[in-house]
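Appendix C. Worked example: NADH dehydrogenase [ubiquinone] 1 beta subcomplex subunit 9
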Amino acid sequence: MSNIPLGIPTQVQKICSLYKRTLRNLESFYDRRHVYRYQAVLCREKFDKILNEKDARKVAEMVKQGEEELFLTQHPIPKKFAKSPGGVAYERVVTPPDWVLDYWHPLEKAQYPEYFKKREQRKKEFIAMWEKEYGKPDPKDTHH
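Step 2, the predicted output written as C-alpha cells:
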C-alpha cells in the first residue's frame, strides 16, 4: 500500500466517495427515516452492481454516469452539518488572540499565578529569540 500515491484516488475510492455523496443527497430529500433507508437500499443495489463489475472500462463509465446523475439530481438546499463549512455554526466560536491576556487586570491575573508566571517567562524567551534572529527593534518604531 505504501507505493500508491496519496494524491490520486483509486477506482474503489471514487466509487466510495460517489456512494457517500449520493447518500448525503438522499438525506437532503427524505426527512422520514424509513423512506430514506428504502432509497438508500435501492442506491446500494446500484453500487453493488458497479463493485461486482470486472471490466475496468465499464466501471469507469458507470462511475461517470453516476457522477452525472448525482449532479442532475442534486438537492437545491443540501443539508449541512452545523459546524462544517457552509453550516450555520461554522467558525462561530472565535478563539481570542494571546495578546488579549496582556490587558487583564492584575486582580484577574492573581487568580492564575502559575500560568501567568510561566507566560511571562515564555514571553521573555520569545523576545530573546526574536532579538537573536532579527536584532533589536528600532526605538522610533515602538509607538502604537
